[in-house]
Amino acid sequence: MTGIETNVDDKVAIVTGGSRGIGKAVAAALAASGARVMITSRKADVCEAAAAEIGHGCRWRAANVSDADAAAGVVNDTMSELGSIDILVNNAATNPYAGPVIEADIPRWDKTFQVNLTSPLQWAQLVWNASMKENGGAIVNVASVGGFVTSRYIGSYNISKSALLHLTRQLAAELSPQVRVNAVAPGLVKTDFAKFLWEGEKEAAAAEHYPLRRIGEVDDIAKAVHYLASDAAGWITGQTIVLDGGGLIRFGEEI
Fold it and tell me: pLDDT of 11-22, one tens digit each?
């Protein structure tokens, strides 16, 4: 029996929110494994710097993930320059509101769902019509362990991620057998996006909530996304890998 083969040689991947954090780590892992990668995020200078750091011919386009015209432009450019789209990683996310859902203002609620739920569907539709309907592929949605639990502070975000988990299952059913659709659900990961939860002395305290006694690193998530995007996961669709250091299974008295 040989080892698991997860290379993605010569496959073309788009990673949204690919200029930093989990997205950049995912793009780097795919590029190092042979994929031709296109990253996108809002700021051109940040995208350009990230692509240079990732190397391996990584390309970039600045685009607001929830702008339909900009998304179509990225997909069209990828097809023109690279000829196909084999992998889509829906990583971009936002969390503009913290507080009880009952007090959430509707504009920020709408923005949360636009970026975290509608945009992944929009990008999936675009790559399906541009390439995957005819040639197959893999879509990986970056959700959150928050999609399984309630929260006093980030309930709106968690609800959007719960919906993304169900969208993953729905698309997996609809797009089979051509396209596999899966998700990852990270716990607390050491990113700028979540810095307010782990920075400084908070990290040690946060780690105590996890049976593995540490918070996540971006590479923990990138490895799982890489696996799901590769042919090694060829009989997996509609599933979610929880990456939370055991947080969901910790003993009840620790909650």
Answer: 999 999 999 999
| Backbone phi, psi, residue 71, to 5° | -60, -45
Catalytic residue chosen out of the listed positions 97, 153, 157, 227: 157
- Residue 107: both structure tokens together: 């504009």
157 flagged as catalytic: yes
CATH code, 12-185+218-242: 3.40.50.720
Residues 97-110: tens digit of each pLDDT: 999 999 999 999 99
Residue ranges of E strands in the chain:
12-16, 36-41, 59-62, 87-90, 137-142, 179-186, 240-243
Question: Full-prediction pTM beyond 0.90?
Answer: yes
Of 90, 91, 43, 117, the residue nearest 191 (C-alpha): 91
Edge to edge, the sheet with strand 36-41 lists 59-62, 36-41, 12-16, 87-90, 137-142, 179-186, 240-243
pLDDT at res. 202: 75
CA distance 145 to 246: 11
DSSP string, 197-253: HHTTTHHHHHHTTSTTSS-B-HHHHHHHHHHHHSGGGTT--S-EEEESTTGGGS-GG
- Looking only at the bridges linking them, the beta strands covering 137-142 and 179-186 are parallel
Token match 């929009």: residue?
122
Q: Check residue 255 and give its pLDDT.
A: 46
Residues 233-247 have pLDDT tens digits of 999 999 999 999 999
Q: What is residue 4's predicted lDDT score, i.e. its pLDDT? A: 67
What residues does each domain of the chain span? 12-185+218-242
In whole angstroms, give the CA distance from residue 199 to residue 204: 9
The residue with tokens 């900009």 is 70
